[in-house]
């Protein structure tokens, strides 16, 4: 029993106390309007079935699950420190004016020390490459698309 308690203490000591959250919102995000982001403690089963309206209601009336509520501005890269609740997965939700796809993400245990989230106009970009490290001249503008070669032309058959 003593060893089990010692192991739990050691594991708890290895867990970060905060989550560095980096949110990249290009100028066209949310039709160019600010929006709320909520970071909440969640149960995985609850997360799977909760509606956008249920989450949005927590902006006006936060409950004990809300860890952070923050305005996200289009055209910015916002770096936020989130104090982690003990032993709870998190949901990071973005309240877009017109959500068009994934509007929240689940962060399971163990929670990482940092998390990069890139936004599109009405949804979270999935499968995104990690965000670049912070630079003083960072404007929050999205990276430019590289020039891609044109597909080869084929002769038309008569």
TrEMBL record:
Keywords: Signal. Residues 1-19 form the signal peptide. The keyword Iron does not apply. It holds the Pfam family IglE_N. Residues 143-152 have a biased composition (Pro residues). Residues 128-158 are annotated as: Disordered. The keyword Signal applies. Residues 36-119 form the Type VI lipoprotein IgE-like C-terminal domain. This is Type VI lipoprotein IgE-like C-terminal domain-containing protein. It comes from Pseudomyxococcus hansupus.
């Amino acid at each position: 029993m003593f060893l089990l308690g010692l192991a739990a203490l050691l594991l708890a000591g290895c867990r970060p106390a905060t989550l560095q959250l980096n949110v990249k919102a290009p100028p066209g995000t949310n039709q160019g309007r600010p929006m709320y982001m909520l970071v909440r403690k969640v149960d995985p089963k609850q997360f799977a079935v909760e509606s956008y309206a249920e989450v949005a209601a927590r902006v006006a009336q936060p409950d004990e699950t809300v860890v952070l509520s923050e305005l996200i501005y289009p055209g910015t890269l916002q770096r936020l420190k989130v104090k982690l609740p003990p032993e709870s997965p998190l949901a990071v939700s973005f309240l877009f004016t017109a959500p068009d796809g994934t509007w929240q993400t689940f962060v399971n245990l163990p929670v990482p020390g940092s998390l990069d989230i890139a936004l599109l106009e009405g949804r979270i970009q999935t499968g995104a490459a990690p965000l670049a490290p912070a630079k003083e001249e960072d404007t929050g503008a999205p990276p430019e698309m590289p020039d891609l070669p044109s597909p080869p032309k084929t002769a038309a058959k008569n």
